[in-house]
Specification:
By secondary structure, this protein is an alpha/beta fold. The chain contains twelve helices and nine strands. It folds into two domains: about 5-195, Alpha-Beta Complex (2-enoyl-CoA Hydratase, Chain A, domain 1), CATH 3.90.226; about 200-245, Orthogonal Bundle (Lyase 2-enoyl-coa Hydratase, Chain  A, domain 2). A hairpin with a 2-residue loop joins strand 1 and strand 2. The protein binds 3-methylmercaptopropionate-CoA (MMPA-CoA). The site of 3-methylmercaptopropionate-CoA (MMPA-CoA) (1HE) has 24 residues, from helix 2, helix 3, strand 5 and helix 5. This is Methylthioacryloyl-CoA hydratase.
Amino acid sequence: MEFLTFDIQGDVAIVGLNRPEKRNAISDRFVEELNDVISMAEAGAKAAVIHGHGPHFCAGLDLAEHVQKTPFEGVHGSRRWHEVFARIQHGKLPWFAALHGAVVGGGFELAASCQVRVADETTFMALPEGQRGIFVGGGGSVRCARLIGVARMTDMMLTGRSIDAETAERWNAVQYVVPAGTAVERATEMAARAATNAEITNYAIIHALPRISDMAKEDGLFVESFIASFTATSPEAEDRLRAFLEKRAAKVAAPTGAK
Ligand code: 1HE
């Protein structure tokens, strides 16, 4: 592989963006390779971590490639990002993004496709499209806006403002802030834990929650009942519920104090 690394640790696929000399900028071929790696992860793992090699997570769109496109090629290019990132957001696996350094433009869009974002303290996030004379095209107007809200995204795009990890957490752009250099380790621990969940429940979490949040309240509640019943009557749920009642399953633990 030219742009990515792939490894499996237990049930967790570890995907590394590996174009550090260009700060992991995403070209068309990079997107195609990511698509292939998603298939590899789905075939061999129950959860996945995505991180960046080198000093940054990802500098977004490969700007050198972008300037050579016709308008229509640009539309197809953006739609391809949508297709591939949708395989992360609504695929078979929960994805944990381990962030450090720049998480910029398309890098933020990629991180926003994952279900959980773990940022180390060096992380900064920005949407510099306004400065470059372009617009988000990797799903940001939907995914980033739903995470941080339209007003904050508008501010980031108009002013070119860059936010640090603490602000990103306050704004809901990431769920965890961890010490520098530990994001991959923490994300991998969480992914390994998620991999032990019932597969059908993980699938329901990934697919149902974002869809239900887009629905009207009554529709969401109606859909929830079907998913709740479908999961609870699966053989796996019966085994797990029996294990709890027979005191063979772990209890819920109080938080340990670690953030
Ligand atoms: C790149 C790219 C890139 C770096 N496309 N080549 N993204 C941006 O507007 C972000 C542009 N990048 C930066 O602001 C900085 O590179 C970083 C803050 C991310 C990192 O800074 P630094 O000092 O560590 O690295 P550098 O020296 O700026 O970059 C190293 C090399 O990577 C350099 O090339 P070189 O030939 O001089 O070694 C840079 O030109 C190159 N490089 N970023 C191409 N993005 C689907 S729509 C999504 C829309 C967007 O993503 S817009 C945001 C684009």
